[in-house]
Specification:
- One of its GO terms (molecular function) is phosphate transmembrane transporter activity.
- Helix content is about 35%, strand content about 25%.
- By secondary structure, the protein is an alpha/beta fold.
- The strands form two sheets. A six-stranded mixed β-sheet has the order 6-7-8-3-9-10, sandwiched between helices. Strands 2-1-4-5 form a four-stranded antiparallel β-sheet, with helices on one face.
- Bound molecules: adenosine-5'-triphosphate.
- Adenosine-5'-triphosphate binds near residues 18, 38, 39, 40 and 44.
Length: about 250
């Protein structure tokens, strides 16, 4: 099943074309990795999927992104509810300078949930899903900034999950973390894909190979090849993909 269909997508930062005629589908409840050398447009592409680029001056987008048949760039689309359906986790963990509890409860509260019991339940459920509950259940009212980097990143994942999204976009979520914290997040991603569609930008080909089902290789704003991860890493169709995954460039 396809969750997101991208067709003929072009993106310009003023006169610079950062994405060139991108067409591919993102499968539901799978992990799709976006790989490619620095500056090839991976983050830009990721941000087009929940309209984060709308916030940047001078951006022009041509083409289509459909979330289950709905064109997300249609003028009637409510961007706030779109971002609720398609959540995002960033490279550097960015918890609010508030308590652990408040970080997770923040989104649901903003969406009008006031009932304490309901909020408590949402916070626990989201922290459990983010594999953080056991580590923080006795310190929910302590500052999130006191957590380790890896815990902070899982808290940011819990914060995204509290919005009950369908899709999670992750922009190099482990690049600021040590190998143990990275392994925990990778394990978590593998668990989360049972319920969510995940798109992840990664600089680590080992990571893409370990956790993703599908991989898209980007080069200078184009998608050169997209296929099952195993195929991309063993028998890619394009010479440029092969050169990249075997470390001959990039
Ligand atoms: N806000 C912006 N304004 C102008 N140009 C931008 C902006 N953001 C990105 N770019 C340019 O668009 C191109 C793609 O950038 P993007 O960050 O999407 O690449 P990337 O593949 O994610 O890179 P990296 O792996 O280094 O994070 C680059 O040439 C970059 O300089």
């Amino acid at each position: 099943m396809q969750k997101i269909c991208v067709e003929g997508l072009n993106l310009y930062y003023d006169d610079f074309q950062a994405l060139k005629n991108i067409t591919f589908n993102i499968e539901e409840k799978k992990v799709t990795a976006l790989i490619g050398p620095s500056g090839c447009g991976k983050s830009t592409f990721l941000r087009t999927l929940n309209r984060m680029n709308d916030l940047i001056d001078g951006v022009k987008i041509v083409g289509e992104v459909k979330l289950e048949e709905q064109d997300i760039y249609h003028k009637d689309v409510d961007v706030v509810s779109l971002r609720r359906r398609i959540g995002m986790v960033f490279q550097k963990p960015n918890p609010f300078p508030k308590s652990i509890y408040e970080n997770v409860a923040y989104g649901p509260k903003r969406h009008g949930i006031k009932n304490k019991k309901q909020l408590d339940e949402m916070v626990e459920k989201s922290l459990r899903k983010a594999a953080l509950w056991d580590e923080v259940k006795d310190r929910l009212n302590k500052s999130a900034l006191g957590l380790s980097g890896g815990q902070q990143q899982r808290l940011c994942i819990a914060r995204a999950l509290a919005m009950e999204p369908e899709v999670l976009l992750m922009d190099e979520p482990t690049s600021a973390l040590d190998p143990i914290a990275t392994a925990k997040i990778e394990e978590l991603i593998t668990e989360l894909k049972k319920e969510y569609t995940i798109v992840i930008v990664t600089h680590s080909m080992q990571q893409a190979a370990r956790i993703s089902d599908e991989t898209a290789f980007f080069l200078m704003g184009e998608v050169i090849e997209v296929d099952h991860t195993q195929k991309i890493f063993t028998i890619p169709r394009d010479k440029r993909t092969e050169d990249y995954v075997t470390g001959r460039f990039g």
